[in-house]
UniProtKB/TrEMBL annotation:
This is LuxR family transcriptional regulator. One of its GO terms (molecular function) is ADP binding. Pfam families: HTH_77 (PF25872), NB-ARC (PF00931). It comes from the Bacteria. Residues 267-341 form the Winged helix-turn-helix domain. Residues 33-144 form the NB-ARC domain.
Amino acid sequence: MKSNGGLLTGGASFVGRRRELAMARKALIHGRLLTLTGAGGVGKTRLALQIVEHVKGAFRDGVGVVELGTLETGELLASAVASALGLRDAGPDPMNVLVDHMSGKRMLLVLDNCEHLCTICARFVDRLLRVAPRLRILVTSRQRLGVYGEQVLTVRPLAVPDPARPLGEIARHDSVRLLQDRMADVLPGFSLGAGNACRVARLAQRLEGVPLAIELAVARLRTMSLDQLIRELDKPIDVLAADTCATLPRHHSVRATTEWSFELCSAAEQRLWARLSMFPAGVDLDTAELVCSGDGIDSADVLDLLAGLVDKSVLCCERRERGLRYRMLESLRAYGCERLAPSEKNLLRGRYVDHYRQLVEGSQIDRMVPDQLERYRRLQVELPNVRVALEACLSTPPLTRVGLDIASALWCYWLLAGSLIEGRYWLERGLGLVREPGRTRATALWVDSTLALRQGDLVIALPRLEECLDLARRPGNEAVLPYAIRTAGVAAFSSGDHERGLALLQESLALHRAGENLDGVMLNLYYASAYGSVGHPGRAAEFGEELLALCEMHHARVSRAYAQLALGVARWNLGDCRRAEALVTSAAMFTGEVNDRWCLTQCLEVLAWIAGAREEHWRAAGLMGAAHALWQAMGASPERLWYHAAWHEHCREQARRALGGRAFATAFRQGSRLGQDRAVSYAVAG
């Protein structure tokens, strides 16, 4: 969800807006909520990100930028913002996580593209401002939120000159400066001069100084002269084609230029533009070929068509680790949606859903494979597109089972990403629709129970689990039984019955071994090693050693870090401080690098215990403080975890007695202010 600013923020330079920047800086000093309003394409996002560059030094706790244009439902707003800020919504209410995280922080939160969620965004912003007195919020939207204390800065088109004025006066206008900058990219060596100033000013005037209109129009200079471009733009276009335009007069130039750009595309480019509007997170080449080809688009032509749309500034091209990715600015995607006929959308829906079903199934993280981390990152990028597939499935009766299967297959992603609220949102919607007592429902029940247990929600988890166990024992659902029993084991630990919990985990492990399910064995070994480390540390260490060996054999790096953590806790409980420290330090280094906060936080906690055992009580208090900041950010606590609770309390009391209350509080506070990167460096320094 973190914004990259879209098409107009890519490597292009920022032009003008000095007055708006000064006003915004003043507004954020004297007020707490600033909303940038204006028509689509006027440059609100670019201005917001430029404001961030100017004011970020004033915010000790940083700036969070959250792109909401790809979020289709307001019900996921709080969890989406929490996820974008790196928080794990481990409690049943992600809003509480955000409140706890922000209540004492001096930070700036930027919410970009809020207009489609205006009402719920208003309630969300109002609550945050009430509970976080040092928080400032910057919003971009086509309309104001209407929240008490809101300051509104209307972002208007760039100033345009009179073509009859002298060159020096024309050159001072921001619209001309933007045109000159973009034209130089398209026409190397271009510069504004006496011979072309009048025509450039005429172009700026025709485009009404709207940045998106300028971007789209200048792209045409690759295939036509400046005079031809002006003549084309002077042709009459029905700028009131869309109903919304009647209420947004300043949107006319964007609408007209977008319409004109669309008409200048080939028929195949037009079709691809419309079809790509289905993808809020953009696409790679393979996806575009698989989903968008056919019925007027040959798959062999897709690459050339994408290149044509990039040349026309309809798409922006981003280079990622896995190759090029093509994205569309929200204004252009909305226009593309208008041009996608319902019959064509229905035709594409099946291919879209099938593609993302296969992508999710092929990117499951709970597999003993070398590319676990790459799978996780792939799902992070594709999540907005997967949400569209989930919504399509759960809104179309013949596809509801497919939607529930997709939501269940994402279970490990929901855990690692800390997106428990979102995972349960899709699962419970699907469970409400898929009532047949088959494998799909049984699987979703143990997944939903697992997420609920992580949230500490036993009231929901236990009935779901009971139904799951019943279904798993019916003919045809036998494959679900080991997962149901494993989840029951975790539930027993969560309820305080560690003997029954370990027995159930061992029962599930035996079933996975009998079925030669290596992935199931891996997860059972982790739970048995971690949860069993307090009551049966010797047996837990055996599970952990086996798990670590499996992970190293299969180069499963994400699972390896969890194996090191679980084995480290078991070795700690056996009194092997040196081995425990080596294992947990290695896990902390990896999880800090890949930003896996769930594992990292536990590593910091264990390293605090080890420091305390060495009578390094100041260091122990500092590490506990660093861990506390992350526990708090995730809405979790060591007291909730069976294998952490007792040692956490022992370490804290030991350090407090050794240092005294005041010194302990100072060390703890200093650790809590380190921030994640410095906390990792401090932890692994030894």
